Amino acid sequence: MVEDEVIFYGHPNVLSLHPRALEITKNTELTLRGNCIIGVGANKACKDLDPALQRLLKNDNSVVRLSIIAGNRSCILNGFGSSRLLLLNSQDIVIRKTNFACSRTLCLNTDKASLDIPREIVRLLQNPKTRAVLNINIE
Q1: Count of CB atoms within 10 A of residue 1's CB?
Q2: Which of 11, 46, 62, 122 matches a 20 to 30 Å C-alpha distance to 31?
Q3: CA 80 to CA 59: how far, in whole Å?
Q4: Order of strands across the sheet with 73-80?
Q5: Per-residue pLDDT reduced to its tens digit, 107-137
Q6: Please, which residues have CB within 8 angstroms of residue 8's CB and are 6 or more apart in sequence?
Q7: What is the chain's Cα-based Rg?
Q8: Which residues contact 18 (CB under 8 A, 6 or more apart)?
């Protein structure tokens, strides 16, 4: 198994309402227009992920398991790698329910987007003192 971890923080403007995408950003500011963003101040973006994980993410046969952990709550997402992934963005990580790939995309065809995150977790992520973790695993 290859894994990596991204640490990020909550923000009062986290809405988590986008039906097709979920984003974590290194940026520390968030407007209400960023309704797919669930966390700010991340310590990593796509470009910063472990090179072994990046190689597996770029494989069409990879199954990606993601865990979002905030406080004592967690949410599991499942998605897929793709040879179309670039993983070059130095600011953001975007997880997509669709098949759209760009430099910010971590994985495709996930079973959840930001709208699907349990509201208990969203409430925690609306607090800037909340430290959260995105675990990324590929077996």
Answers
A1: 7
A2: 46
A3: 9
A4: 2-9, 131-138, 63-70, 73-80
A5: 999 999 999 999 999 999 999 999 999 999 9
A6: 24, 25, 38, 39, 40, 41, 42, 43, 131, 132, 133, 134
A7: 13
A8: 35, 36, 113, 114, 115
Q: Which amino acid is at 95?
A: I
Q: What are phi and psi of 85, to 5 degrees?
A: -70, 140
Residue 13 structure tokens: 């403007």
Task: Give the length of the chain.
Answer: 139
For 36, other C-beta atoms within 10 Å of its C-beta total 21
Structure-token pair, residue 127: 């607090």
Confidence band for 139, pLDDT divided at 50, 70 and 90? confident
**Tokens coding 122:** 């969203």
pLDDT of 44-81, one tens digit each? 999 999 999 999 999 999 999 999 999 999 999 999 99
